[in-house]
TrEMBL record:
CDD domains: S1_RPS1_repeat_ec1_hs1, S1_RPS1_repeat_ec2_hs2, S1_RPS1_repeat_ec3. InterPro entries: NA-bd_OB-fold, Ribos_protein_bS1-like, Ribosomal_bS1, Ribosomal_protein_S1-like, S1_domain. Belongs to the bacterial ribosomal protein bS1 family. Signal peptide: none annotated. Keywords: Repeat, Ribonucleoprotein, Ribosomal protein, RNA-binding. PROSITE patterns: S1. This is 30S ribosomal protein S1. GO terms for cellular component: ribosome.
Length: 553
């Protein structure tokens, strides 16, 4: 009894370990897929064998091995301790990982599963999340070769309370890549010619691997000619020879070029394409302001919209030419410094205004359709897509042009006479009223100043009389009705009277005849004096006029 009491008191003096702590134990048996572990303190517990296995491996544990376990409960319903080897490893792993995270050290782990948005990684007892974007420096299509492989990771974030750990494989690769890039870049110099492998192609160029470091081969440096799609020139995996154009050792950016290894076609442009020479080229690009035409690979010229057509002034270049179309162009200007060639499309065709002038000289009658009606005249469509203009003043001989233009509509076919062709200003003047001739010119044909003609009175007014000659109206003022002031009365005439008048003026512009009865009388008197009398004859004016009248009778 004394010995039993001593042993009992000794057992009471031994402190039972706290639940939630890690303790050491010894494997005393393995049965039914479990290891029976004596953790001391007269406690035993069971742990599944799978907790002693690494991902993808068989469990490695034998009777007699000492292991660490996590004491979850001192005793369960069966009187056994509830223990876990996996939780013990996790606790130890978290302690180790927190130290690594604080010192920014790498940790070793293995990818063992795939989850939404990424993968799960075993970090020696703790499970971490590896986002898909952090697997590699470039998107990974097949992660199979990486599964179960021991490799380093960088801890990006961890929260022990929530049990969250986020790691990155990409950070390790980028760090290694940066060291490799720095080593390669240190050996590169501008102007070096090196071999590289095309790794990626974009719309603006291609990335070429120079042996651990990528350089950008921009689309404008692939060839001297215009390259619309880099895939026309390169393919992924292709080995190419490139020249180092620029190296930025701070940002590790490398610019590469392929065309620099070829002869510059612009060196011979002036000799090959003299001014005003005509060449055949291919349309490569069309813009709002013109079209680019390739004369040879690497040499393009711009046909400005103003140089595309003689007649189509306000249309998009795409309505005149199309991409890949072969056209004839004339060299208008070359600027080798700016690598620009100005080309003309319309210059390869004859000026339609010059052609029109040859075919339809001034005075020729033409026919055309009314294309447009404006406040100052009509535009009439002619041959070769050119227009002629009929001014208001050329619509009719009689009346106002503003009234006459109301009689015309778009689409009307009209006859007109060419009155002027200005090839420099690209203008053609037409006259509709000239088609039937000028009635004024026909009426006064042979009539000149000083002629005596017979007119018919058509109207009596206070200021004079209106008369008509060959259908042309004229007005004789009161002061020109007679030499004698007393006879200068309009009422002494009647409509229908025919009287002889003297022409004092022929104004073709205003289409008016200047007429005067007074001038006729004075001229007749002067003529009579010259024929029948002289200053020393002694005859009176009445005698002279009487003799003249008697002779006329």
């Amino acid at each position: 009894m004394e010995e039993f009491e001593a042993l009992l008191n000794e057992s009471f003096e031994i402190d039972t370990p706290d639940e939630g702590s890690v303790v050491k134990g010894k494997v005393i048996a393995i049965e039914a897929g479990q290891a029976i572990i004596d953790v001391g303190y007269k406690m035993e517990g069971r742990v599944d064998l799978k907790e002693f296995a690494n991902p993808g491996e068989a469990p490695q544990i034998e009777v007699g091995d000492e292991v660490e376990v996590y004491l979850r409960n001192v005793e369960n319903a069966r009187g056994e301790a509830v223990i876990s080897h996996e939780m013990a490893k996790r606790e130890a792993a978290w302690d180790r990982l927190e130290k690594a995270y604080a010192s920014e050290e790498r940790v070793e782990g293995a990818i063992f599963g795939r989850v939404k948005g990424g993968f799960t990684v075993d970090l020696g007892g703790a499970v971490a999340f590896l986002p898909g974007s952090q697997v590699d420096v470039r998107p990974v299509r097949d992660a199979g070769p990486l599964m179960g492989l021991k490799q380093p990771f960088q801890i990006l974030k961890m929260d022990r309370r929530r049990g969250n750990i986020v790691v990155s494989r990409r950070a390790i690769l980028e760090e290694s890549r940066a060291e490799q890039r720095a080593e390669v870049i240190a050996k590169l110099n501008e102007g070096d010619v090196v071999d590289g492998v095309v790794k990626n192609i974009t719309e603006y160029g291609a990335f070429v691997d120079l042996g651990g470091v990528d350089g950008l081969l921009h689309v404008t440096d692939m060839a001297w000619r215009r390259v619309n799609d880099p895939k026309e020139v390169l393919s992924i995996g292709e080995t190419v020879k490139v020249q180092v154009i620029k190296v930025n050792k701070d940002t590790h950016r490398i610019s590469l070029g392929m065309k620099q290894l070829q002869d510059d076609p612009w060196d011979a442009v002036e000799a090959r394409y003299p001014l005003e020479s005509v060449h055949t080229g291919r349309v490569t690009n069309i813009t709002d302001y013109g079209a680019f035409v390739e004369l040879e690979p690497g040499v393009e010229g711009l046909v400005h919209v103003s140089e595309m057509s003689w007649t189509k002034k306000n249309v998009h270049p795409g309505k005149i030419v199309s991409t890949s179309q072969e056209v004839e162009v004339m060299v208008l200007e070359i600027d080798t410094a700016k690598r620009r060639v100005s080309l003309g499309l319309k210059q390869t065709m004859r000026n339609p205004w010059e052609v029109f002038e040859e075919q339809y000289p001034v005075g020729t009658q033409v026919e055309g359709e009314v294309k447009n009606i404006t406040e100052f005249g009509l535009f009439v469509g002619l041959d070769n897509d050119i227009d002629g203009m009929v001014h208001l003043s050329d619509l009719t001989w009689e009346g106002r042009g503003e009234d006459a233009i109301q009689n015309y509509r778009k689409g009307d076919v009209v006859q007109a006479v060419v009155t002027e062709v200005d090839t420099d200003k690209e203008r053609i003047s037409l006259s509709i009223k000239a088609v039937d001739g000028d009635p004024f010119a026909e009426a006064v044909d042979g009539v000149k100043r000083g002629s005596v003609i017979t007119v018919e009175v058509t109207a009596i007014e206070d200021g004079g009389i209106e008369v008509e000659y060959e259908g042309m109206k004229s007005f004789i003022r009161r002061s020109d009705l007679s030499r004698d002031r007393a006879e200068q009365r309009p009422e002494r005439f009647q409509v229908g009277d025919k009287i002889d008048v003297r022409v004092t003026n022929v104004d073709a512009k205003s289409r008016r005849l200047g007429l005067s009865i007074k001038a006729r009388e004075i001229a007749e008197e002067k003529e009579a004096v010259e024929q029948y009398g002289s200053s020393d004859s002694g005859a009176s004016l009445g005698d002279i006029l009487g003799a003249a009248l008697k002779q006329d009778d």
